[in-house]
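[Q] Does anyone have a clean structure-token version of this?
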Amino acid sequence: MNVISVNRSQAQWRDIKGRRVLTAIGKRPVSGPVAVGPLGLDGDEQADPTVHGGISKAVYLYPQAHFAFWQTVRAQAQVSLWDEPLPPGAFGENLTVDGLTEDQLWVGDRLQLPGCVLAVSEPRFPCFKFNAAMGFDQASRLMVQSGWCGSYLAVLDPGQVQAGDAITLIPGPREVSVRELFRSRARA
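[A] Here you go.
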């Protein structure tokens, strides 16, 4: 388990379906260590703090294992080429990771990295901005159907994070997995 990419962005205004909206979903990889504090990565913004960011949603993690699926469905929707890979940060994630999927993460699990400790807090729920980032209107529905939502993390021990960092999973109480919580809230 390791960090493949650390991604961040500044909020920018975009036209989405005839509406001018502020969004920071288009994160871009950065090289070297990045400071991580109680409210997230240094230099990263969230456009709508009512649904993203804050203490319990300071960092957003998304598994690289799901990228091939999204690449395929984007090609099927004819918004990208079949061999056009999605770049790290395309889902708005701060950490693109290898080896950790939603069914392996439980609320309360800790992720020990060399420079910080993060805690799994809740799943991410998609919105119309996710549809725009993926390029087709059914993206949010596909995220709900697949359960491939990624995980929000709280910062327990601030420090730094960088691509290549190993991640050690320290199990929490194991009462509800990220996928179970996502599916139960998505039905509500």
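[Q] Thanks! Anything notable?
[A] The helical segments are 67-76, 128-134, 139-146, 178-187.
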